């Protein structure tokens, strides 16, 4: 049995909007294994993205403990969180978030540059990742010259650049047609054989591929089901 990569203990996240208090996460307890695809589903505003942001150290919890890859994120200083995001997590967004004036290869190389890898190693690894995702012929193209599906595959390659044990994907097929979405589903499923992929999705087809589905509503983990 796989050991846990992610542990959340009584995690809550509260936002103040104007005079209103919003409880985005409400006492979440969760344990996720080292490999496999986990889908987070629920209605809009249920806390799906808040959960993803807390796990990825893009946001701190208001209370509770968040432990990822042996690091207690809620107790780390900001400098350590930056290193955690760089080395432990790969991010895939609905809007791709590629740098428009960089080529596909340069976009993939960027996280490795921040990690201090020498340029020959960055190029070699970036090229291998693009080849793995059937994008080698598009390596020199900029995002504006790529289709939506190609841009998302570049984004996935970039997420894998520093070989993180965890990939977080927020509505990764939200801007894609269903056929292209199927390609992205298959890629994420393949990646989940070697690391944990945590994906927020409204797409039933993607949730069905997951090894485990987390159902969230009103900031609470209502239930967790296995495939």
What can you see in these coordinates?
33% of the residues lie in helices and 31% in strands. Helix 3 (104-114) crosses helix 4, helix 3 packs parallel to helix 5 (148-159) and helix 5 packs parallel to helix 6. It contains seven helices and ten strands. The chain is globular.
Instruction: Just name the CATH architecture.
Output: 3-Layer(aba) Sandwich
* CATH homologous superfamily identity: P-loop containing nucleotide triphosphate hydrolases
| Class of secondary structure makeup | alpha/beta
Which parts are unreliable, with pLDDT below 50 for 5 consecutive residues or more? none
Order of helices and strands: EEEHEEHEHHHEHEHEE
Task: Characterize the main sheet.
Answer: 6 strands, mixed
Computed over alpha carbons, the radius of gyration is: 17 Å
Please tell me the total number of domains: 1
Number of helices: 7
CATH topology: Rossmann fold
Oligomer class: single chain
Spatial strand order of the main sheet: 6-7-8-3-9-10
Helix content range of the residues, please? 25-40%
Terminal Cα span: 16 Å
What is the number of strand segments? 10
Strand portion, in percent? Answer: 25-35%
Rounded average pLDDT: 92
